[in-house]
Design brief:
Layout lengths: L1 H17 L16 H13 L3 E7 L4 E6 L5 E9 L4 E8 L2 E6 L2 E6 L15 H9 L7 E6 L2 E6 L11 E5 L5 E6 L3 E10 L10 E2 L48 H5 L1
Parallel strand pairs: 6-12
Antiparallel strand pairs: 1-2, 1-11, 2-3, 3-4, 4-5, 5-6, 7-8, 8-9, 9-10, 10-11
Length: 260
């Protein structure tokens, strides 16, 4: 009888184990990356990308950016020099920095130098100078994200930022769709980027000379005459002669004639 009771208890225990409910444990939802982490990821991809692309510039016209496979670059800027009358290109090659205009190129600085400020169109800076700095997690900016666009706002305690605040829009492939900031204004991608060139070429012959500034050249002022007053224009009419209505003055008589 005891054996039957033990067998019954064992059967009950085994039966209870078999009917236990199994609870499925679901994997936790992946944590969404912070806006800054998402920006750094896209910037990393962008820095590995070479391209040729056109951007509509808020200052007017279309800027062409060349990021070559070998790291050289060039930017073509419409109507920038001489008071908006001359197109210029600024390039960095294995020979240094150059400004090109009207099929002539003038060297601005050596390969490790920098572009003098008065000859710097600045539109290349987002691609060349500012983009690598976005990898720094200690940048004094608060980053917010809306879709593919990231807004950088300076922290309140920061006196000066390494580059201007603004908005960066980069797609998942690392293409800079648009950028807005500082004196650069805004640049917005026009169309799809083209394949990158192997290395940039200067659009002109290297010559000795002075680069072109943005301001229009000053007009020369007329030089004053030696006396300080403008000299009178010479008259085209001839001077009158005695035969033309001017009577001759008679000579005074000599003393001998007067004594007679």
């Amino acid at each position: 009888m005891a054996a039957l009771t033990l067998a019954a208890l064992l059967a009950a225990v085994l039966s209870g184990c078999g009917s236990a409910t199994v609870v499925d444990e679901t994997d936790p939802a992946p944590r969404r990356a912070s806006p800054q982490a998402a920006l750094i990821g896209r910037v990393s991809t962008a820095l590995d990308t070479s391209f040729t692309a056109e951007y509509a510039w808020s200052e007017g016209g279309t800027v062409t950016m060349w990021a070559a496979e070998d790291g050289t670059w060039r930017v073509d800027v419409p109507a920038w020099a001489q008071g908006g009358t001359v197109d210029v290109s600024v390039a960095w090659t294995t020979g240094g920095f150059f400004q090109c205009a009207q099929e002539r190129c003038v060297k601005l600085a050596g390969i490790t130098g920098e572009i003098p400020s008065k000859f710097d169109p600045q539109v290349q800076r987002p691609f060349i100078e500012w983009l690598p700095q976005l990898l720094d997690r200690q940048l004094p900016f608060a980053v917010s994200q809306q879709g593919d666009c990231f807004t950088l706002t300076p922290n309140t305690v920061v006196v000066r930022t390494p580059f201007p605040e603004g908005e960066w829009c980069l797609d998942a492939s690392g293409t800079i769709v648009s950028v807005t900031g500082g004196d650069v204004g805004s640049l917005t991608l026009e169309g799809k980027p083209a394949a990158a060139v192997a290395t940039v070429e200067l659009p002109g012959e290297i010559v000795e000379g002075d680069p072109l500034g943005r301001k229009a050249p000053e007009k020369p002022t007329p030089e004053p005459s030696a006396s300080g007053t403008p000299s009178e224009a010479p008259s085209n009419s001839p001077s009158p002669t005695p035969s033309e209505g001017v009577s001759e003055v008679p000579e005074a008589p000599s003393e001998a004639e007067a004594g007679e």
